[in-house]
Structure to design on (560 residues):
């Protein structure tokens, strides 16, 4: 009895200690006290087991009513469970409390509770497989019950090691050896699509060691990237960005995957293109300048290889819109200078282009357009403002922000004065960037003549669709040189049809006459889609113009 009394007293002592450690688990004093008393507590657990294994269940509960409370607190203390000997002694003690043949609901509930504690220990720490199998079978568990828990907690344990997590505020200061991390990434290659391994995949991707070279297996990056592209894995955007920063081939493959999807899909469905681009997470990743520069370079190569194919230009412009929206959300106070994104442009020009042209009231649009044109002209023709690239670099920058050229075309038709040379130059350059200064000056003269003709038609009554068609087919001059801005003329006429109420009655007939082949038909459909897309983003449109644009779209799409 004296031994029982001493054991009961020890139980109370350790119960108070466990409660104190639990309440102040994050203080250095608690850490030191726990480590100091741990050998004594392990010895106490061994003595407890030696006593309990000889007792009947009912006697244990009668003599030591707080033993369940003590064991429960022990199971929640990671310092104690971190040692194999503590785990085994604790498991043995819990097994002694299981009633082999429960006689009532209370005993059944106690068995269920104890098995829950055992399951927690088994799943939280890796034991020898034979020990686990023997113990779980003796407790009535099958592999289906405990292996998922073991897997989950094994993954979490590895994640904690990788992240050097704090254990209840105590820094373990332990690092995985680089070769072990390399081996771990290799083992994960066939497992990256398993949901249970997602935390480990993320931890590996975001692991930042001090090694001078990449230590993760290249095939690991490739497997994760392929799983992400196929939507077989769910990762936070930060992990995906890290993947693309650490493994350039994965970023290139993701970008090629996106471009192929955009080009192979219906190029004029800009809303679908926008959804596809946002789902790729590339606009979010491009907020990091290193990723943006690579993405932008791939668009540049695509434009050069396709000779400025309309579908590539459209893809670039929709991507840029998505990127700018994301940049505004994530960089309210810009983290990176604009020059890091567009190094070949004057910062003042980039700042102007990044504005939303649709949000500027029509009466205030002329000034920013003229400023943009002047800056571009200096960069292209006068080689001022620190221009470092060819005219293509200036055109490529402008091509990102196609809304400005569309606004310039609209302004030319709305102005009651002679068209400003700055707007004529901007449009001539955009639609024919390869021209030299003299050719561009000639194009501006021809463009002004077309504008004068269109504005004259407004004063003639009644307006004829055939007269509009004649304006669009004036594609040669006296030297039989093709008019450089043939596409631009069609853009001006389409704007003319949409914005001048006098033209609405003949709009469908005029468009039908203009669309005399499949290429021009697709071009006009693309323009109308882009116009409607911008209106939708702006949030409002002229009702009559919007209705007409959709009617023309429906009419032309029926012909393709």
């Amino acid at each position: 009895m004296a031994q029982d009394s001493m054991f009961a007293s020890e139980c109370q002592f350790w119960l108070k200690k466990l409660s104190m450690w639990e309440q102040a688990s994050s203080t250095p004093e608690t850490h030191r006290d726990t480590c100091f008393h741990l050998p004594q507590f392990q010895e106490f657990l061994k003595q407890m087991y030696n006593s309990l294994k000889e007792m009947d269940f009912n006697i244990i509960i009668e003599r030591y009513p707080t033993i369940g409370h003590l064991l429960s607190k022990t199971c929640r203390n990671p310092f104690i469970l971190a040692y194999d000997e503590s785990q085994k002694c604790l498991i043995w003690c819990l097994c002694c409390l299981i009633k082999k043949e429960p006689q009532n609901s209370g005993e059944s509930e106690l068995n269920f509770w104890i098995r829950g504690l055992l399951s927690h220990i088994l799943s939280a720490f890796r034991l020898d497989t034979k020990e686990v199998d023997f113990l779980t079978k003796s407790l009535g568990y099958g592999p289906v019950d405990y292996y998922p828990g073991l897997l989950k907690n094994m993954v979490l344990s590895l994640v904690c090691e990788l992240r050097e997590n704090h254990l209840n505020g105590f820094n373990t200061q332990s690092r995985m050896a680089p070769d072990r991390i390399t081996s771990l990434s290799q083992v994960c290659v066939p497992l990256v699509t398993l949901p249970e391994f997602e935390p480990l995949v993320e931890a590996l991707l975001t692991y930042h060691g001090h090694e001078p070279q990449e230590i993760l297996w290249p095939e690991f990056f490739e497997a994760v990237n392929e799983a992400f592209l196929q939507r077989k894995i769910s990762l936070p955007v930060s992990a995906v960005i890290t993947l693309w920063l650490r493994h350039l081939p994965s970023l290139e493959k993701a970008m090629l995957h996106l471009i192929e999807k955009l080009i192979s899909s219906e190029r004029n469905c800009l809303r679908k293109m926008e959804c596809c681009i946002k789902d790729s997470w590339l606009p979010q990743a491009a907020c990091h300048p290193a990723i943006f520069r690579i993405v932008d370079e791939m668009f540049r190569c695509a434009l050069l290889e396709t000779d400025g194919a309309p579908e590539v230009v459209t893809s670039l412009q929709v991507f840029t819109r998505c990127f700018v929206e994301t940049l505004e959300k994530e960089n309210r106070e810009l983290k990176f200078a604009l020059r890091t994104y567009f190094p070949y442009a004057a910062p003042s020009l980039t700042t102007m282009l990044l504005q939303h042209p649709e949000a500027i009231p029509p009466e205030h649009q002329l000034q920013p357009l003229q400023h943009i044109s002047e800056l571009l002209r200096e960069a292209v023709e006068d080689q001022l403002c620190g221009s470092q690239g060819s005219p293509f670099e200036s055109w490529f920058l402008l091509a990102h922000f196609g809304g400005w050229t569309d606004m310039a075309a609209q302004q030319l038709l709305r102005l009651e004065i002679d068209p400003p040379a700055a707007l004529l130059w901007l449009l001539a350059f955009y639609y024919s960037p390869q021209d030299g200064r003299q050719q561009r000056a000639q194009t501006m003269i021809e463009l002004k003549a077309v504008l004068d003709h269109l504005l004259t038609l407004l004063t003639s009554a009644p307006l004829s669709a055939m007269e509009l068609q004649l304006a669009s087919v004036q594609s040669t001059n006296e030297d039989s040189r093709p008019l450089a801005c043939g596409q631009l003329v069609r853009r001006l006429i389409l704007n003319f049809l949409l914005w001048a109420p006098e033209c609405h009655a003949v709009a469908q007939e005029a468009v039908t006459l203009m669309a005399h082949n499949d290429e021009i038909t697709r071009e006009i459909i693309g323009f109308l889609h882009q116009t409607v897309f911008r209106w939708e983003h702006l949030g409002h449109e002229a009702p009559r113009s919007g209705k007409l644009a959709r009617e023309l779209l429906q009419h032309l799409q029926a012909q393709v």
